Amino acid sequence: MKTYVGGCHCGKVRYEVETELKNLISCNCSHCQKKGVILDFVDKAKFKLLSGKEFLTDYFFNKKSIRHTFCKVCGIQAFGEGISTPKVAINVNTIDDIDTSKLEVSRHNGKDV
User: Fold this and answer.
1) How many CB atoms lie within 10 A of CB 29?
2) Is 89 within 8 Å of 80 (Cβ atoms)?
């Protein structure tokens, strides 16, 4: 496990997460595909919002099983939270100084779920 820090584009929302950056997915559901996110699902206990709670707003769609949070200032979704599961979905692209081209990413068929 390694601890990473990241956040939104404008810097208002900052977080810290402990993860191995394994089992990463690129989902083709209508929401993820349009955003182009790479997701890493971690236990809530391994995630800490450092700053910017007041700048977050929520978006729910489809089954409303994930609270998609994004920054009200710059619009970037750094993470989302499961409603019925104790997981946080980290947008790996928002981790500071990450080179996602060096990571193994699996495709997830969220379109047909």
Assistant:
1) 16
2) yes
113 part of a folded domain: no
Q: Is 67 within a domain?
A: yes
The predicted pLDDT at position 85 comes to: 83
Q: Write down the residue that tokens 């409303």 correspond to.
A: 64
Report, as an integer, the average pLDDT of 45-68: 89
What mean pLDDT comes out for the span 22-31?
84
Burial 58-75 (b: 16+ CB within 10 A, else e): eeeeeeeebbbbbbeeee
Range of the domain at 56: 2-108
Mean pLDDT on 86-91? 94
Considering its fold, how many domains does the chain have in total? Answer: 1
Look at residue 8 and tell me if it is in a domain: yes
Residue 31's pLDDT band, with cuts at 50, 70 and 90, is confident
